[in-house]
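User: Can you model how magnesium ion sits in this protein?
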Amino acid sequence: ATPMSIMVGVGRGAQAGVLIKDAEALERLEKITTIVLDKTGTLTEGRPSLQAVIAAADADEAELLRWAAAVESSSEHPLGRAIVEGAKARDLSIPPVADFDSDPGLGVWGQVGESTIRVGNERLMERHQIDVTALQQAAEQARDRGATAVFVAAGSTAAGLLVVEDAIKATTADAIAELRARNLRVVMLTGDNERTARAVAGRLGIDETIADVLPGDKADIVSRLQREGAIVAMAGDGINDAPALAQADVGIAMGTGTDVAMESAGVTLVSGDLQGIVRAVRLSHRTMRNIR
Ligand code: ADP
Ligand code: MG
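Assistant: Here's the modeled complex, given as structure tokens:
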């Protein structure tokens, strides 16, 4: 590859908001066979909002939300922010929390008044033997709409369910269609529930989903795909995506995400728009063709 044409390619990318780190990233981009996309913040806006509060039989909705917001006040996770904002929008006072702790990919907990409040997914509830059977139907309905079901427990009892929804970015569907038209294999990777993942994927024409992935396992999944022969571009936005971006043949960070993700990536999409991936792929082909 002549350095000159690569520089021109990198410059063209920059003008279109596609920042390419070096010549190698552009060369590798031309060879990718598979694009792995993180769901939250990559396919979706990454700004979820609270859609519904569903209290279990003997629980009170306002109380449930107040408890959850108390714990989530100490969390920086987008789901936590959505829950705190939801409580504020309903004019609820948020009590203080003590002994806050979290398990990445599962949820958060802390002491609110007399009770230990846990907020998170089914895996968190299972770990503490909290029976969520009574909330299961509501959870599945939410997931089938593409929303995330967040369980809330007080002590060892399920108190209810919070339905949190993150809108799909307006440009995502077209970008996926164009990637598929280029015969690229498109895979969604997410820490979210399988059912939610499938609902979102269905709307975008993505037929491969890898869900319920713990933050520490994303990079392993990328390397498994590579062992199976795939040349992988991985796009993500979060701190927990950084190792997977580094493992991929080309890491693609959303400019709207965390600095850690951008540092691990060969390509950064300034506006976080997936059309940037299409542009980057097109650019790599054009540049490499000019060189040969
Ligand atoms: P993603 O792949 O979407 O970035 P994460 O690994 O951040 O996912 O989180 C995976 C799952 O863990 C979430 O879908 C949620 O069920 C649960 N979770 C993580 N953090 C929290 C939190 N602060 N409050 C509630 N649930 C959480
Ligand atoms: Mg994420």
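A couple of observations from the model: The two ends are 8 Å apart (CA to CA). The domain at 3-45+168-291 is CATH 3.40.50.1000 (Rossmann fold).
User: Helpful, thanks.
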